[in-house]
Write a structure and sequence with these properties.
Blueprint lengths: L14 E5 L4 E4 L5 E4 L12 E8 L8 E6 L10 E6 L2 E5 L7 E2 L9 E8 L3 E6 L2 E7 L8 E4 L14 E11 L4 H6 L8
Antiparallel strand pairs: 1-13, 2-13, 3-12, 4-9, 4-13, 5-6, 5-12, 6-7, 7-8, 9-10, 10-11
Length: 192
Amino acid sequence: RWPAMPSTVAADQPSLRFSTAPGRIFDGRQGPTVFKDLAGLPVAERDPWTLNLFVWLPADPPNHTIIAGFGDTTRGPGTQHYLAKLYGEAYCWGGAPVTDIGGGTQFDIGMWQMWTIVYDGRNLSHYKDGKFLRSAGVFLDDAVNEIQIAPNPPWPDEPQTRFQGKVANLSLYRGVLPPEEIARLMVEMPKE
């Protein structure tokens, strides 16, 4: 379930467009949780957005594990906007190497952590636990209006690994949350 979203927001103010209910456990066997055709999602190629979620992992996920984000997980380069494990580290998976941007760090195991990905229309930035990690220039394409948690992996030549762990309080904002607002989201970190 998610709250009703405001219909009018000042153009320069980020607005919450989607938020999940707290906590869900994924065992790697069930299918994804999918939300489609949500009003006001920032899916156009230059739409700025901020994706924030809390993740708990029981073990280091294998490469090519997609955790959560938006897009349909099947279309071409630049159309996917997901937190994933790629190339041995936390990544924003964009659908092709030119749009896959690494956070430069690993996932924590056995503890809650907050991951934030910010796209301003030109640059993609990673934050972990409210602290800036890395930014890189990237041009994304239109995404399908679809949010998925623990989606099916789209790579036929790779082991088909589904996310195992917990996801809580996934939020998608239309617009760029400033660093101080990202840091304030840490108060939503689950306690158990």
